[in-house]
Predict the 3D structure of the following.
Amino acid sequence: MQRSKMIYKALSKSLLCYISALLPLFLLSSCDFIQNSAAKETSSQSSGIPTSDFTVSQDQNSQPTTPSDNNTLPSPSTSLNPDDLIFEEGFSINQGALKTNNIAVNLELKTLTPYFIKIGTTMDCSDGSWQNYQSTVDWNLSYPNSNNIITVRFQDWEGSLSPCYRRSIIHDNQGPEILFTKYPTSIIEENTIAEIIAQVSDNISTVTSVQCRLNNVIKPCFPGENQIKITNLPQGSYTFTIEASDDLQNISSKSIQWQVNSLYKNLTQEIQVNDYRKIDILFVIDNSGSMEYEQKSMAQRTSQFLTLLHGLDFQIAITTTDPRNINLGDGRLVPIKRDSGGYIIDSNQEITSAQTQLSQTLQRTEVGSGSEQGIRSVYRAIERFKNNESNLRSFFRDHAQFAVVLISDEDESDNTTKNDPQNLINLISSTWQKQKRFSFYSVITKPGDTQCRGTYGYSYGERYKIMSDLTGGLIGSVCEMDYSIQVKGIAEGIRNLLKTLTLDCPPVNQKSITVFKDGVALSEPFSIEGINLKFQNELLPGKYNVNYSCLK
């Protein structure tokens, strides 16, 4: 009230009314503080590529992400001080805008006693430095892609202070996030229906436009989940791109590519089977924050695994789905929880002690990256083996079969070469000259399991299912309270590697397959499980030749 009296002494009542009519009060609504996880990626498209038509539908149960869906911090209060309604003074940001994609903003300041101003970012106006009054000030926001609070205080010529005026504006210069959760493998057959599921969302702004493009064919898509079907694909190379923009004209795009082949290739593969009964097992455990519930009982859930491998010469190592280049990420092995340290559990250890070490090491306490990439972790582990890293050189043995057991509540979170199931199979084949039998077991949120998806399953494990289907591996549910049945099935599947021949690619039909052992046609029946031929009995040592056909 002292400041009000001083103003009235300085100005006559009539003059004050006149000025009041000219100077409107600047009031802005508050903005939520939001963190953005939008991604931006571009990919060039080759020319002269055959095109095809496609249809787009929107999942009616999927709602587009709105800024309020992903608040990770409480919004600071931006309510006005009571005195704000008395004085015809204050300020605005960008003429009252609520959001901006520019880090530089303009402040318009109004006061009846223009002398000094202080601008800052603390809620009580305690920061900043006094400067001569200006009616407009250019200001750089402190927090990109977040809510920004700006505070202003005025001082008159007698040193009296105004209330602390607070305004906020959201900064966002990143386009919407685009995530492909289902898409074709790198090579598919001619005239196959290609299915794509893509999620378009924005944690800060509103998605205003989504456009899908298959080579040169462009169609509108939707915010939220898009389900795309592409039929009658002729031979050629394809690029499918989604471009999205928000209400601040931020643009992002993401692309996937695949090849359509029209011809088959006939292959003859030689596989040498030994009697070593060696199996190397790599566990890939999701240590992200969303796995907190499952991790609490991981030791108990996996407590019977090793007893089911009795009689095998096994080695077990553990890595995580974390793709970051850190000690527990990027395909590096996790130290085993035991006094002697090390990175491998083997069949020479006492079984009870070995099982305790496995269960306790699988139960992770750290919080890893939320960008889970289990397939990439296996790919990177093999690359580290090829680069002669000692831990991986000790794990991968000559003449041993290879099994991966992945446990995750979310699907593979990126779309690079190293995240592709067929590319992982190709790497294993080339690294060990087509001699290593391989299977991939997934304990995931099973696609279509809405009950799991609605509780502890973060997203459907579409790509992990493809990986397991390609190698004949069991697919279990991460939401099961008791993993004993699933663990038994995985252990039996690992044993069945001794009954299996792993091919370079999935054969197109069983009738075209012939198998010879030491030059003699094999009459024993077998089944096709992705790239694996599974026989009824363990294979006897010898040289096997398999004739089969695959897509080119």
Notes: The longest strand covers residues 236-246. Confidence is low (pLDDT under 50) at residues 1-49, 68-79, 82-87.
